[in-house]
Amino acid sequence: MGAERRAAGSGARWARPSYGALASAPAPTPSLRPESLRRFASAGLPFAPARTRRPCAPRCSHPRAPGREDAEQGLLRAGAGAATSRRCRMAAEPQPSSLSYRTTGSTCLHPLSELLGIPLDQVNFVACQLVALFAAFWFRIYLRPGKTSSDVRHVVATIFGIYFVIFCFGWYSVHLFVLVLLCYAIMATASASNIHRYSFFVAMGYLTICHISRIYIFHYGILTTDFSGPLMIVTQKITTLAFQLHDGLGRRAEDLSAEQHQLAIKVKPSFLEYLSYLLNFMSVIAGPCNNFKDYVAFIEGKDIHMKLLEVNWKQKGFHSLPDPSPTGAVIHKLCITLVSLLLFLTLTKTFPVTCLVDDWFVHKASFPARLCYLYVVMQASKPKYYFAWTLADAVNNAAGFGFSGVDKNGNFCWDLLSNLNIWKIETATSFKMYLENWNIQTATWLKCVCYERVPWYPTVLTFILSALWHGVYPGYYFTFLTGILVTLAARAVRNNYRHYFLSSRPLKAVYDAGTWAVTQLAVSYTVAPFVMLAVEPTISLYKPLGVLCFGIISDLHSQLCRWDFTPFHR
Fold first, then answer.
1. Please, are residues 493 and 556 in contact by the beta-carbon 8 Å criterion?
2. pLDDT, tens digit (0-9, with 9 covering 90-100), for 471-503
3. N or C, fewer C-beta in 10 Å, the chain?
4. Whose CA is closest to 359, among 62, 48, 17, 39?
């Protein structure tokens, strides 16, 4: 909308719709009421784990859009017939032997996992990110471009990244290495006119096969932080690089947009540059996706000067280029990370997503109460993503990567790789504004490989690609089907009615307040299936909410949009 894991979504600047990563994060897993369990057990879920397990403590990791999260665990346990309590309460403390403490990676932090009551796969993830943060400071201070060659910086960044992947995912990390090597062979041998096609279909095909196998064949999708997250980030980078190589080597300059011309790559990267771009320790675990030119400029120490020259630094009266420090930006983002973690450990635990399919919510709550609680639950689930994405941004900034230039007040900005704008998300007065500030880098990727490229129905095809990139859970496709209608209806309403409220400030204030409420509720309604994952819980939620809401959306769409798929960003 995707992208989101690690963007999803960044001439005239394109307003980045985070088509694929609309969804809010799921909440920790309480028990469901018996009535709900019977419905789940009778309807069935996408798969049932080999063993049931007790709910674990609140989760705090994984940057991509939801797929194997706490809501999944609660709903899967419900499908497997796990014991439940009468109310939506947190169940007993997890046992060390439970599936929550299994991981495909290193087990050396198992004692810490037991002490904190947090699943081992998540402990490994957060530990790697914290080590990466300190390694990033060391990388910037002791391996500065002026005193260290670019090759050394590439090698160190790659070795650290490979170690982190193996530590977190064990032999499953082979999937990343296989895809990287396979697509390098394509890049080295394919013609410039076809390199983007081959790379896209191979990378997306391999990712989709992994999604299907880990969920429906090997039942591996029950862990929160598995190898598919980094694989999704690597897929974004591989396809971004392939399309930019195609722009630079296979298309005429006059056929490119201003942004495509700026990012086009004229020379194929070396094997070392390719590995470093895809597997560097700053982004291999949690992303985000970035452009190859920006990454190479960072490694060579040219990125900051390039950004300053873009804003005509010397023409503004400055005679020397400064060397801005990212320390202030890193501290600011770490503070946001800490607050987000505290909110997640408290707020999310209080408003678990599994209560959305509780018997009281489905059958007894009034319609306004359902909408309000749906909004509260979706709000409570966001801090998890705020934590993971902001920490990943801080890691890149600590290494010196992420400088974007100077703002209108002359302040240095370190938001080149930022994946979200929290203030604009929480105050969004339109569906478009919400999407452009959520998972910004995934939206940038979707724009690069799909939205700008396809000749027909760019909005619809972008939604479909985002859903496929995220995975194969049915809930994803419920979300994106609804998201298409909401996007088109919201566009039509804004175009047809907004001008009536601009004549005076009071009317404008009323319009903003109303559109804010509608936007927040529409997002909550749209992303709920993304959190539920399976068909039956989605239908259970949509039964009391869906008839009216979906009817309103469809009616607005049919009357105002008339199935006009012209992209509103062009």
1. yes
2. 888 888 888 888 888 888 877 777 777 777 887
3. C
4. 39
